[in-house]
Each structure stands twice: as C-alpha cells, then as structure tokens.
Amino acid sequence: MTTADTTPPLRIGLLGTGPWARNTQATALAAHPGVELSGVWGRRAEAADALATAHETRAYTGEEGIDALLEASDAVAFALPPDVQAPLAVRAAEAGCHLLMDKPVATTVAGARAVAEAAEKASVASVVFCTLRFAPETSAWIAEQAAVDGWFTARAQWLGSLYAAGSDSEYADSPWRRDKGGLWDVGPHALSVLIPVLGDVEHLTAAAGPADTTHLILRHTSGASSTVTLGLSAPPGAAGVEIEVRGERGTASIPGWAGAETAFRGAVDALAEAVRTGVPHPCDACFGLHLTELLAAAEQQAQAQAG
Fold this sequence. Notes:
With about 300 residues, this protein is of the alpha/beta class. The chain is about 45% helix and about 25% strand. It is built from 10 helices and 12 strands. The protein has helices at about 20-30, 45-55, 60-70, 80-95, 110-120, 135-145, 175-185, 185-200, 260-275, 285-305, and strands spanning about 10-15, 35-40, 60, 75-80, 100, 125-130, 150-160, 200-210, 215-220, 225-230, 240-245, 250-255. The longest helix has 22 residues, at about 285-305. The radius of gyration is 19 Å and the shape is globular. The N and C termini lie far apart (about 70 Å).
C-alpha cells in the first residue's frame, strides 16, 4: 500500500503575457501536477485577462498587481525582457518568492548582480532557464560529457533566422532581441553547455560578424578551447544549432530535443527540488550573473572591433 503524496503544490505566479508566456510558460505551469498557477501579471490588462482566463487563474496588472501576485505566490516565473525582469526579480526575492528566470537575467552586470545578491540575502531558490540544461535529452548528454576527461576542443554554432528576410516569427517583434542580438539571446544557451563540460571560461575573445552575428574564442579551465558562433539574422537555409566536443575519446555531438515546453517543465522541477532541499541548482542566479559578465565582456570587445 502506498501513501498519497500530501505535499502542497508550489504556487507559481507568472509575470509576462507575451509570446513566450503564452506559448510555453503558462501552458507548462498550468499543466504541471506539482504546481498551482497562482496568477498572471501583465502590463496590459486585456492581455493578462486573456491569458489568465485561458488557464483558469487570476489576472493582475499595475504596480499594486505585482505586490498582490507576489503575496499569493511561493515563486514567480518571468517572461519579460531581461532588464525588466531583473528589478522585478529583486522585488520578488525581497518578498520571499523563489525565482524562475529567463535568460539572460539582465544585460548589465549591475542588474544581474543585484538579482544574485537579493536571492542570497533572502535565501530564496533560483533557476535560470537555459533550455539545454533542462531538456531531458540534452541535459543527459551534458552530464555524460562532463563526466569524461580529455576534451581537447569544442565548437558551438547557434544561428537563427529571426531577422532574415521573410521571417514571420512573432519573437522578431521583441525590441530587446533586436537591440542585443544573438549574443545575448542564444549565447547563454551555448555557454551553459560548454562551461559544465569544459570548465569555466578563463579567457574570451570576441569579434563581430555579419548583421548581429558574434564569434567567440574561449579558453577553459580544463585547458580545452572552444569556438562559438551566435546570431539571429542568418538566411533560413543557414540556420541551425550544432554543438560538438572533440577529445581523447573521439567526437560527441549534442542531440536534438523535444521542445521548449518540455524543457521548461524540467526547470520547474529543478526549482521545486531546490526549494525542497535548500541545495542551489547549478543554473541559479549566481550562474546567471556569471553568464552576464561573460556576455558583457564579449559585447564590449565585439563593439570595439566593429567601431
């Protein structure tokens, strides 16, 4: 005879109502058996009402709505531009809410550091959603490669066609993505794979490529090196994701993964585990700060060379 699980669901509020919130986060949170979607906050009342109604929860808006949602939640998930997310994450941590953040945490080191410090001071759990660290197929591959010694070099290429001629992606309307480009949008994904496998980045060189493309050369603490190409403006025929490591045991390439919603459910599970155990997840706010430090250094180099 088994005993029924009496653990109360983790009440998670959602901040944001854009495509990412609609297509991935709200659906994943509402369907998760260990979660109660405690509400949806949006800057536009009509968008918050529509998304909340679709998932049978309460809508919040305005400054007072943020405070009300935080009070009704154990944790909050963010589907907002990074530099809107960061100060609200500080506010949520100060209110005692655990944090499920999108990448990058912020596009300034000061903004990301404020989040990490607030989370530490409030003793709240935090997870930064770097997709490949939470999709079952890719997270298992990363763990497998991280357990192997002798990697010599790696190559990562993440090219999207978000801003290519003829693109009709609704994510192309995102002002922060257009302003910051592939370095900041998909760079966190590539770095979140390379760092656990090859070690932290000791030295970084960056150069600008065509359109928003950025090229990185990284030296890691293991002694291995890696190259990274990032962009959102590639022709559709050139778009794609490839990550490959080479070493003493040969070559290993990252597998495909099922999709963002499945990966996001993995991030929810990781946050719940960190809340339950008190053990920080490797992709926490401190890791988010480190990613921002690396990306800011790369941006500065690439801009100096291009300018």
